[in-house]
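Supplementary Note 3. Input sequence used for the single-chain structure prediction.
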Amino acid sequence: MTPFSGVVGPHSYSDAISGKKIVILGINPPPLGGISIHVQRVAYKLRQQGNEVVLFDTEKRTRGFWGFIVHDLRLLAFLVKHRPDLVYHHTLTCFFRGRLLELAGVIVLKWLLGYQLVMVDHVSRFFPQQSWLYKKIANLLFHALDQQVLIGSSTYASYREHTIFLGPRYSVEAAFLPPDSSTEAAITALYPPALSAFLKTHTPVLLANASKIVLFCPAGVQHQYAGKELYGFDLCLSALDMLLVTYPQMGLVLALSGAGDDARFKKLLKTIEKNERVYLMYQCPGELWPLLKRVDLFVRPTLSDGASISVQEALYYGTPVVASDACERPTGTVLFKTGDESDFVKKVTKVLAPNEAINRRRDYPHAQQTF
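The predicted structure, written as discrete structure tokens, is reproduced below.
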């Protein structure tokens, strides 16, 4: 097994590939999220390299046993129809048992059709919730893979902790790929006019994002976070009151792709209705990177995380980042103790101190204000 050096490498698993028929299995937008954006950009890159690329959305399916059966039959028929040379299977390992059934079918067809199979695993925080039998079956299936790509060091750590098989061809890589800058005008045209007005009337402005409202289901030492929001919107709203003492004109933008937990989402809406300092960008109409160039600070107060594309994107555009220490973060990220509101406020205040970081990003070559 290739030893992991401890340093997450840049995205490279799609490098130097050309003239192939490729199928990508994964989450496709909408809604927008870290994995769907990654899949979208990888597909674009592979096409630019001269490959024929088609995508199959593994998330658009009916729930329940028969829903999984129909989904798998559709997937297998899709692969037979396109007869690819190479298949990328993007997943959150152990998110549900149906994923193993899906992978087993893809492996059977690999033997019949002769394609190469690469699994790209984005998050493995679910291993502790699975039985020894589940892990044993996963290990058997993983032996049939041609290559494994683990996104972020936390995914690698989860594999090692739970003795999950890693073959001779594996890599630990970042999820981030630079966006296509030519799409910026089209993306910003989709943003609500009220967002621009909010940015003009508040300073400094913080941005936090989430795919949906998810209640954290921890394991082991993380039991103290049970019932809290995975992406930390609750912490942001609570900390805002303290930050307003120092920054009375501060604004907080919460970008949310979907509702998720219905009860907690309704509670969020009620809280925001009473607070003019908070703007909810619900069901984000476009990618966030143009907005990252306009805010003063991006915050990522997650209770658990993988290789967040948003964090890497913010740093790419010169926007300061304050994030939880729930996992390894890219160089340049200011870390606070996971779930610790006081430490969050302390680190945000430090980053926003006069002459230290506010407006610093506007001096970066990437950070051109466009809307």
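The longest helix spans residues 65-82. The CA atoms of residues 272 and 278 lie 6 Å apart.
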